[in-house]
Design a protein that fits this description.
Layout (H helix, E strand, L loop, with lengths): L1 E4 L6 E4 L2 H8 L12 H18 L3 H13 L6 H4 L2 E2 L2 E2 L15
Antiparallel strand pairs: 1-2, 3-4
Length: about 100
């Protein structure tokens, strides 16, 4: 999910994850202790798609939802809170502690 962000020094799109958008568009709390659930992720993805289809031709409402998404504080991801998990690097070069090579 992306939103045009003109508050940046160089305006561009800001990208958001499923947890953040579902929290602010669907009013669901996805930060529970259970972690990710593929069925819930799929359900929230479809609900977000349907929500977007509903508001895409209503510019004031779409703008309001986009601003709510931009202005809300983003909760740190699991990978940011846990740079390594079970001795496995979470793949973020900036937080890598294992020294394994990256192939990209």
């Amino acid at each position: 999910f992306r939103v045009w962000n003109d508050k940046l020094k160089k305006p561009s799109f800001t990208y958001f994850g499923l947890d953040h958008v579902a929290t602010h568009w669907l009013n669901v709390n996805r930060s529970g202790a259970g972690g990710h659930n593929a069925a819930d992720d799929a359900m929230h993805s479809i609900q977000l798609f349907n929500s977007y289809c509903t508001v895409q031709y209503n510019p004031p409402l779409l703008f309001e939802l986009q601003q709510r998404t931009i202005n809300a504080k983003i909760a740190p991801s699991f990978a940011k809170m846990n740079p390594t998990f079970e001795d496995c690097c979470m793949g973020n070069r900036k937080l890598c502690k294992c020294g394994a090579p990256f192939f990209s």
